[in-house]
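User: I'm writing a tutorial on reading structure tokens. Could you give me a worked example: one chain, its sequence, then its tokens, then a sentence or two explaining what the tokens reveal?
Assistant: Sure. Here is the example chain.
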Amino acid sequence: MPADEAQETGEGLPNIFFEDLFLMEMRIKRVEHPYAHSQVPKNKMSHVVSNVVIEKEDGVSIVARSKFHVVEFGRDEQRYFAGKYKHHLIKAGDGYKIQMQRVDIVNADGPFEYVLQYWV
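And here are its predicted structure tokens:
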């Protein structure tokens, strides 16, 4: 999730977050841990993905883009996120796996207390 939509890479630049699979799994474990105070009580969320477009498909990989809206409610506050996704998918067995996911949120330059990773 780059801080600027024009960014081509997250390496060495400001990002809201820039994670590989290991860091993503660590974040998920922290949020789902029974002592995760940020999730007591658990946040409620609605996540809508639409306008899915396949930009490229070659039998081995797919590049897709889409739009999303997320509404989160927790601690008596409601937050909204909207933006677009770009996914690079790789054929794996009888399906596909995410090789890369990019999230550009509309309000990337706005203030954040924290951002949980709901994007997958």
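What the tokens reveal: The helical segments are 21-32. The domain at 21-105 is CATH 3.10.450.50 (Nuclear Transport Factor 2; Chain: A,).
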